[in-house]
Amino acid sequence: MADSDIRSKRAAVIFNPTKVDVKKVRRAVAAAQKAAGWSDGLWLSTTEDDFGRGQAQAAVAEGVDVVLVAGGDGTVRAVAEGLRGSAVALALLPSGTGNVLARNLDIAVTQLSASVQTAFTGVDRAIDVGVIDLARVDGSHEEHTFVVLAGLGLDAKMVANTRPELKKRVGWLAYVDAIARSMRDSEKIRMRYRVDGGEERTMSVHTILVGNCGLLPGNVLLLPEAEVDDGLFDVVTLRPEGFGGWAQIWLKIVWENGVLRRSSVGRKVAGLARDVRTLRYLRGRRITVALDRPEDFELDGDEFGLVTGFDAWVDPAALIVRVPAS
């Protein structure tokens, strides 16, 4: 490639000013873009009214070659929504509590210089995007996208109950406190659902999660079969009965998924393990859910209010992400 072509390249940086040290990010980006021979980048801040979608669309309109996003999972989700379907790559500068997409793509979550370097020297990978139509209590509908997880029940209550001041101090461990307080609500959710337009079924659950990624903070492998680019959702429902039911779920997720499945011998042992009634996995390209009563909902770790149901489907390979070349 000619030197003049390299110098014509330009990045945009979308940052959440409440999550990042902007001066530190500016220094790291300036050094990396200079080393790569790129032009000065475009800097766009998120706002209370626009968490990143509009900024991403503006960056695409400016003709940038890559969009760096510095913020938490919610900022990443909003920027991905704006970049969906475009040819512009998203580069992650993890700055939040979970940084779940970065973890699933083996992008450094604690080394700013490494993640910035990836933005300018990495390779592009197409991943799936989840698209979801939310049914509201007043009968209206809203369409959003997500790249990690959509959920309701205990999961959404956990997000709603997470104390911001604790989250700021101890990071993702704040969710442990939120889970403990959320579990006091033992009332189950009764739902009707269809997978890929099949037969309608009913189920009572504490939680349902629709996932594009499987690995969570703390090295918890919630969805062991999930891949970000397989064109499928992995769905898990939790329906424990008392302490014993929660113990079964914890053993399945932490020991079987998190330990056994990380080696070839362990995977064989895990394959012999019996399924537990408290945990059920589903897979498909589309899932439609109707609820008997309104429930809290979350997308990629952010509250999205009360819903009476949802229709979620996969948009395959709809987002380009810049990942380490190795």
UniProtKB/TrEMBL annotation:
All copies of domain DAGKc, residue ranges: 6-141
Keyword annotations of the record: Kinase, Transferase
Source organism superkingdom: Bacteria
Protein EC: 2.7.1.-
InterPro entries: ATP-NAD_kinase_N (IPR017438), Diacylglycerol_kinase_cat_dom (IPR001206), Methylgl_synth (IPR004363), NAD/diacylglycerol_kinase_sf (IPR016064), YegS/DAGK_C (IPR045540)
One Pfam family per UniProt: DAGK_cat
Primary enzyme class: transferase
Listed GO MF terms: kinase activity
Stored PANTHER family: METHYLGLYOXAL SYNTHASE (PTHR30492)
Stated name of the protein: Diacylglycerol/lipid kinase family protein
Source organism per UniProt: Lysinimonas soli
